[in-house]
Amino acid sequence: MPGILVYAEVQKGEIKKGAFEITSKAKALGGQVSACIIGKGVEGLASQLAKYGADKIYVVDGPEFEKYSTEPFVQALAQVAGMVNPSIIFTSASAQGKDLTPALAARLKVGSISDCVDLTLNGDKVAAKRPIYAGKAYTMVEATGNPQVVSVRPNSFAVVEAAGAGAVEKVAATLDASKIKAVVKSVEIAASEEPDQTEAEIIVSGGRGMKGPENFKMLEDLAHVFGPTATTGASRAAVDAGWRDHSYQVGQTGKTVSPNLYVAAGISGAIQHLAGMGTSKVIVAINKDPEAPIFTKADYGIVDDLFKVLPKLTEEVKKIKG
Amino acid sequence: MNTVVCLKQVPDTETLIKINAEGTGIVTEGVKWVMSPYDEFAVEEALRQKEKAGAGSVTLVSLGPDRVIEAIRTALAMGADTAVHVNDPAFAAKADPYATATVLAAAIKDATYDAIFCGKQAMDDDAGQVASILGELLGLPVVTMVTKLEVSADKKTATVTREVEGGQAIIDVPLPAVLTAQKGLNEPRYASLPGIMKAKKKPVTVKTAADLGVSVEPMTIIKSMTLPPARQAGKKIEGDDSDAKAVALAKALHEEAKLI
Amino acid sequence: MDFEITQEQKMLVETAGDFAKNEFAPVAQELDRKEEYPMDIWKKASELGLIGAWIPEEYGGAGVGFFGNALITEQFAKIDLGISLIVAGTFGCEAIYWGGTEEQKKKYLPLVAQGKAISAGAFTEPDAGTDVAGARTRAVKDGNDYVINGSKMFITNGNVCKFMIALAITNPENEKKYSKHSLIIVESDRPGVTINKIHGKMGVRASNTSDISFEDVRVPRENLVGAKEGLGFYQAMQFFDTTRIMVSAQGVGLAQGALDKSIEYVKERKAFGAPIASFQITQQKIAEMAIRIEAARNLVYKSAHYLDKGEVDPILNAITKYYAGETAVFCANYAVELHGGYGYIDEYDVQRYYRDAKILQIYEGTKEAEVLTIARRLLA
Prior knowledge:
The structure holds three protein chains of three kinds. Chain A folds into two domains: 4-179, HUPs (Rossmann fold), CATH 3.40.50.620; 202-321, TPP-binding domain (Rossmann fold, 3-Layer(aba) Sandwich). In chain A, 25% of the residues lie in helices and 29% in strands. Chain A contains seven helices and 18 strands. Chain A has helices at residues 17-29, 70-84, 95-107, 216-226, 236-240, 271-277, 306-321; strands at residues 4-8, 10-11, 14-15, 33-39, 56-61, 88-92, 112-116, 118-122, 125-132, 137-143, 148-152, 167-170, 183-189, 202-206, 230-234, 261-265, 282-287, 300-303. In chain A, α4 (216-226) links the parallel β14 (202-206) and β15 (230-234). Chain A starts with a strand and ends with a helix. In chain C, β2 and β3 form a beta hairpin. Chain C has helices at 7-24, 28-34, 39-47, 65-79, 81-84, 93-99, 102-113, 232-268, 280-308, 314-339, 349-357, 367-379; strands at residues 119-122, 138-142, 145-156, 163-169, 181-187, 193-197, 209-220, 270-271, 274-275. Chains A and B meet through α3, β7, β9, β10 and β13 of A and α4, α5, β7, β8 and β9 of B. β10 (137-143) of chain A pairs antiparallel with β12 of chain B.
């Protein structure tokens, strides 16, 4: 059975859900599950990982890890990997994970498999399924190096409670300062409590049919009543028109997402957009054009004026939510 | 300001991807090949930095078969100065991210540069790894997902804004560094007609594995390729009354899909 | 014979195609509705060298020849014919290129090639269209000036041009009908020039079309194209032999755009449980469109190729223009039919293509005039 090391990302003082997902998956695959958390004042969070199967939790805690910065995190995680000597390392393909994972793998002189949505194990060898062309196709990939470094797309695996031994070990990171060249001066996070699109469970997205930036409030209202796991998104047309920041863009030149529910309002469904959200579990399309390609992918379609449908939908969801 | 830009040629994003009969790759027949869109941001940034500095050169480096020359010429027509085209069948089946970065590093190592620009990921395999590995191999700091770049007058340091979850981070980085371009960094220019006419006279050096003195083995192996299961259109919620349709949708999401 | 286009021409096609897709498509519907000239897009295209690309480098152009210009035109017209007429921002200057003095070429061609001016060709009159030699506008010598009186009709770029190339009678006494006229460059801000925009065109509504009147308009004699009187009719014919091919390229582009949109639509649209692309009657239409487009395109490329070699064949040009216009109208019509009811509303582009296409059988020589040219020359 392989030893698996899970990197558990901490954001805003909390371990991210994606970390629990990959811990659960590691546990399900069998073998020894180690986890690593890095940050400042994160020691108290460590035990949470035991609940999902971590047998051992390495904690790298210190002021130098207050803000995420590639090099110190790579060094710390590589140090832990050296202690664990795992055959597999899982990270989450979050915004941070996408920066950290290839750098970590390169430091360990191996390749990595990015953004996997499914995994199987043959003995010690991982076979990972990952989307390419923003989801227009999938590949099954194996890694030849040791360890096998795999980043996993959030929402790909369920969080399952399964207790692990949960021994916590503090690790004093020995950083090679000469390699730390880039310095993070400041981080500006918008006040919004919305999750990132790649990790949200519900995305309410708008396109050209929204007619202008002022109308995105309607989408925010709907996302708000869906709850804290919901956020808003936008099509390329809406972003290119300047109505929405690029960080909201879903599709081939934006984010590839797979939420449980994707609501497409006034989005016609260009091939690049469909690729980026095609793995959503349930898709709702609201568009006044019955020929819009989005309807060919939608589980529920409403051909109507979104300006009439959305407010009522928001009201109804609110009622159901009580 | 001297810069190197790593380019990849990929199928146009409008391409309907089909898998070959063996399940080992895509059907390339009829595919329109273009410069990977994030690489366009990288080329544009290199050109802007050169223009801002008032001097310097932009060198393109690309790995791929003969057709890649088209993407190279496009970038030259945009204004890049020279190019290295690494073209060797020996690399063809082995060019995973690690191998690609190894080859690019070999092609770049003797160049003089203040920065290396890459797209944040290639719009085909979406791996987003090459730049990070390249930085490691060349011993350079890497900043990914760059949306803004200010280079100091002496070209020794840069202040970089990168996209992070829910916001942005401001980073000081010494140059040379590897920087990956995220959408929003700039608006790539079109190749102008005079640029197109000039491009054919710009030097493109073709290099083989032997020229570079590298051999590579992939670290990741693609075992098979498949299309996603076709998604069937579900049901249309019909009716004349908008409110009634909204109510029916909420009900379906609650009772059938159990999402509320 | 060589049917390969060069790598530069391929890149030219890509640049022009990307430009049109990115810049025209998002505003085409709106500009059509508002009858608004796309000045910003013209400016941007000029900066890229896409306007006046046919003009040789020595006069400030990109020097891609009329063949290259036809490629640009085709790519533009594929997205929107109205906006594509920015490529005619050099309209009239073809006559300066063919018949102007060296000084005139040096003075005027760089202006239109470098985005400093739009030009117009003022030939048609309220009572004289196809009958070019029937133009009655008069230019009378007065000292070192000409004094022009008369009126012009359906003038492309009238309100947006800085100067126009006007056809006027300078030698009424000449017995030969075809030796009475001259071409004269008239700046649009000269006193006595009145330009009115024509509203309510059926198609190409983003283009500017005007009627113009000249009342005692004074221009210096150096504005006489070619510095020689009495050549106007022949210069105009040579001019039309050039622009006729460009208009034919518009036809190919529009037809291709109509086909592209139709293919996209018939693959998506379902009827009786299957995409309508699977029905033979749909396939027939798609194939027929493709057949005609390919034939028309080959005519355009051949005509443009000979034009660049300086070998103008009026019969070939007339055949090209006739067939390209027919093809555009034919394909736009089929495109609307394939779109059914949706093809009839302005949310869908094909109705605009349908309205735009008709002009291609009218301007730069009506289809009837082309037929006359072909038949007369064959039977002469």
